[in-house]
Amino acid sequence: MPSNRQSTQNKKQNQPMARSKNMGVVIGALVAVAALLAGWLSQYAVGGGDSAGSGSGSGNATVEGRSDDTAAGDPALLKLARRSADDPFARGDKDAPVVMIEYADFGCSFCGKFARDTAPKLVNKYVDKGLLRIEWRNFPVFGKGSERAALASYAAGQQGRFWQFYKAAYADKGNEKSSFSTGRLHQLAEQAGVKDLDRFDRDRASGAARKLLAKDRAEAYGLGASATPAFLVNGQPIAGAQPDEVFTDAIERAAAAAEKPARHGDRN
Predict the structure, then answer these.
(1) Which of 47, 136, 155, 254 has the fewest Cβ atoms within 10 Å of its own Cβ atom?
(2) For the chain, what is the HEC assignment?
(3) Cβ(238)–Cβ(223) below 8 Å
(4) Along the 268 residues of the chain, how does pLDDT read in single tens digits?
């Protein structure tokens, strides 16, 4: 029968092995998470840029590994475009050849960078000319403050002022991880031109607001997105506030791919 000293020595010898097994479990879990994130990011390889969300890539960043044929997008992802004429959270012709869906958080600094620096250019160059439609999805990932802002954006939309609320919220670069108190939300609503603040409060507290928020968030998570901003351009993913060229390249390639069936039909 082993002595107490031998038993103690055996336990000490087994401790490194136990720690090694535990570390293996932890590493395995981290690899699984990394693989999940890569599932989103690997679908859209960006040349010349930094990691997703940096928005600080080189000026000649373009989408790599995409032919004009694949720019037509995944049919299942294309169906996520809602294309409703009376959608207050969309701008652009419902029948535009290209739809860009944006999954974003009002407390996200990179979402703000996209809203201030890139979105206005896309609106001027593509939306106003009928080529592009932009559809918004609330995807709050920074906690309760972001959820309050998302619900408030829904309420602004019920009075036709969503995009004005969007602009006002992102104009403040200090919004990152903001608590978005009631007072602050009222300020943003007033800046957005929301006329009825009582209705605004009722709408942001409504079941309809929470239902749409849950739907938007489930859609984003279902795609494998875990960070903001994230985009689908005619079903092709873009992760992060990438340089302008990444978006313009994706939009123009998607538009060219959308025209192909019509051209083939003209020949027949």
Answers:
(1) 47
(2) CCCHHHHHHHHHHHHHHHHHHHHHHHHHHHHHHHHHHHHHHCCCCEECCCCCCCCCCCCCCEECCCCCCHHHCCHHHHCCCCCCCCCCCEECCCCCCEEEEEEECCCCHHHHHHHHHHHHHHHHHHHCCCCEEEEEEECCCCCHHHHHHHHHHHHHHHCCCHHHHHHHHHHCHHHCCCCCCHHHHHHHHHHCCCCCHHHHHHHHCCHHHHHHHHHHHHHHHHHCCCCCCEEEECCEEEECCCCHHHHHHHHHHHHHHHHHHHHHHHHC
(3) no
(4) 555 555 445 544 555 444 444 444 333 433 333 333 344 443 333 333 333 443 333 333 233 334 444 566 678 898 999 999 999 999 999 999 999 999 999 999 999 999 999 999 999 999 999 999 999 999 999 999 999 999 999 999 999 999 999 999 999 887 776 889 999 999 999 999 999 999 999 999 999 999 999 999 999 999 999 899 999 999 999 999 999 999 999 999 999 998 876 544 444 4
